[in-house]
């Protein structure tokens, strides 16, 4: 679930132009990555492949 959320948010970030919306999306991406890191206890490079 977190991986799918990260992928979706990163795709939205690519097309978003507004600075406030981009900042919000980046914050959400960071939060999802932190959640995933917490449950998998592994570095991000391993779970994004």
Task: Put the structure in a nutshell.
The chain contains 3 helices and no strands. The chain is mainly alpha-helical and 49 residues long. The chain has one domain (2-47).
Structural key phrases:
single chain, mainly alpha, 49 residues
Structure description:
- With 49 residues, the chain is mainly α.
- It has one domain.
- The chain has 3 helices and no strands.
- The protein has helices at residues 2-15, 19-40, 44-47.
- α1 (2-15) packs antiparallel against α2 (19-40).
Tally of strands: 0
Question: Could you say which overall geometry the principal axes of the C-alpha atoms support?
Answer: elongated
Helix percent reads over 70%
What is the mean predicted local confidence, pLDDT?
Answer: 86
> What is the CA-CA span between the terminal residues?
15 Å
Count of individual helical segments: 3
What structural category arises from helix and sheet content? mainly alpha
Order of secondary-structure elements: HHH
Low-confidence stretches: none
* Overall number of domains: 1
Report the major sheet.
none
SSE layout:
Layout lengths: L1 H14 L3 H22 L3 H4 L2
Helix pairs in contact: 1-2
